[in-house]
Amino acid sequence: MTRPNIILVIADDMGYGDFGVFNDQISSTPNLDALVDEGICLTQHYSASPVCTPARAAIMTGRYPHRTGSIDTLEARGLDRLRLDETTLADVLASHGYATGLIGKWHNGALDPRYHPTARGFQEFVGFQGGWNPYYRYRLDRNGSLEYGDNESYLTDVFTDEALAFIDRHRSESFFLQLAYNAPHYPLEAPDALAKKYCDMGFSLGASLIYAMIEVMDEGIGKISERLTERGIADNTILIFTSDNGPALGPWNGFSQDRFNFGWNGQKGNTYEGGIRVPLIIRWADGLAAGLRSDELVHYTDWFPTLLSMVGLDVPTDLQLDGVNALPVLRGERGKINPLRFWQWSRYRPVSACNAAVRDGDWKLLRPQIRAAMQVSPVDTALDHAIKYFPEHFDGIVEDPLPGRTLPPPPPALLFNLADDPGEQVDLAAKYPVKVASMEAALERWFIDVTGL
User: Fold this and answer.
1) What is the spatial distance between Cα 348 and Cα 75, in angstroms, rounded to a whole number?
2) pLDDT tens column, 20-53
3) Which among 29, 103, 286, 335 is least surrounded, fewest beta carbons within 10 Å?
4) What's the rounded Cα separation, in Å, for the pair 128 and 117?
5) 432: buried, middle or exposed (CB in 10 Å: 19+, 13-18, 0-12)?
6) Coil, strand or helix: which one is 217?
7) Exposure letters 50-80 (e unless 16+ CB within 10 A, then b)
């Protein structure tokens, strides 16, 4: 038998509360809901960052994003670039004979062929290199050749069709497909009939568009699952679904994106649970029992060693990973991995005391955002928008110095016990000062280790 196939599906800005099975069927996600029953659902699964670029770098390398160079989302500044000396999961799998493909969003390097997905372990690429793309007026890179949307084809469906074609081409060999849908990331665009269905249910236009975008993606996942069955390779395929970070809420371009967020505090962009705890469903009939829901903590960096272990490959000895093999957790064993886990993200440059967190068992210490460290200049905001629609007008990254800033003293750390308070509503820092000091020290040691600052 060939080594197991891997299909890693990554949604963009989707939270637990966007699943029908977790929101009392507000949204229509029957295929994802079925995967919850057919596979394993991790209830304490964490991204490596509350935003996409660093998160995607971590799942591709098994390393904290600060080590990889992918520290912010601004591709015009080159801050999304995965360092050229980093080894990706696709690199390792391709070296062992896997056919490798990336369909959808990359966002780990643009504006330079050295950072193109086909130079980072993926033999095939159909997608876009930046942070987002319109759904009807899209611009696609197909292995270096450009294609443009016709204002009728819907990008989510295009990606599904490309995934089905990839499966058909490689069904007789082991393959790794990373299917990185951009749904439900803005711009909020969806088929009118689907959006109207949710509007008629009483949801805001923004929420209706998002639920419609998710429904189209769910239909695509159903087609992929069906195709695997038709080709006789479903049982030997590791099918994973996750999201890069929590949902974007609040206003956007005149729309409200507010919707059910499973009772968690925070959202995309911050290190509260709502920003970093993300869905993970995995199905592998040949290797894992179905129907398990595990509350063991698993982190994005764990998937590099875990997937290699699942397909019978060793981690290259020259790699220094931050992730650990979570296969025992997937097999239902409890308490097998419980290292400290860390998060930090700010704009332009890392700031240790800003928007950071550390988990130690049920305890979570959080450093709130410092507003001045989370702001992007108007010039860079305009560039970030322009590059999505007109990347061909950019010959390279902007080399101007990063904007200067003066940071005030950081706000005090917060301490939560997630077992008692998963919504992070009760700050226990004043009650447990020794615990706060210990976790702050661990966070600072980690920050120095991963950044060298």
Assistant:
1) 11
2) 888 887 889 999 999 999 999 999 999 999 999 9
3) 335
4) 10
5) middle
6) helix
7) bbbbbbbbbbbbbbbbbbbbbbbbbbbbbbb
